[in-house]
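Sample pair:
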Amino acid sequence: MIYRIKVIIFVVLFGFLNSGLKSQNAPGLPNDQDKNYVPDKTSIFNSDGKNGTKERTSNNSEIHDLIELNPFMLARNIFALQYEHKFGDMFGVQGGLGYCYGKDYMQTIIPTWEDNGGSNIDDATLLTKGVYKGSSLYLSLAARLYFNSYNRYSGDENTGYLEMGIRHYKNSMLMSDSTAITTGGGQGGYIHGAPTADIVTNLYYLNYGYHFATDGKIRTTHHFYFGFGIRNSTYNQFDSYQAYNNSSGNSSTYYVMTPVTKTSVNFVVQCGYELGIAFR
């Protein structure tokens, strides 16, 4: 018996208990031991007795699906809704769909691991100097492993969870002609023409958080999380050219966008909150 319990706990931790949970008796249905036990008529466990109590009702039924909104993403000019489906009692898969309506300023303040050699324009400079052009699609995918039963906790109780996922989005930046640029190496110059540079970002992350759900006709869920990740961004490379003025003898540096792409890698720390509406 103990061996079987250990096996079940092991399987639960990896989120593969879906079929086992569905085979359990529904709450409130009697089993064989319940049928063999007959309480005294005066017992509080006898609902037919004079002193018996009415059966307690609960709205804490199982949650199978969630629609969630992360308000912290709005500060990064991203609006997205996440849909989570529960497999078993402790494992869920979440997919997100939305759009970017402005530049992501967070990418301008986090230092990059990549060395551009002082002769190119990095993604932070493109985001700072460029003008956001149009909107783009936002996609995300994540898996959540809950430490306790997803449906057990409500009110002031909560359960912890781990989340591993990826977020994908793009910023298209219009670089105006003759925009003054100073590279990381201190070299100054100007943008040539009016190119549109694309910055495509993939964020791979691992979060730890806790969750609780409310009771009622409309159940809400609340996820608070903290984590870290690796952000990988690809963007257009700019080559520098020297233009000489024969009359004055002076030269100027101009940057021309090329079809070649460069990559920057950043370590990020994140925290946030997600508000959800639950479906049974």
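Helices lie at 2-13, 18-22, 32-36, 106-109, 123-129.
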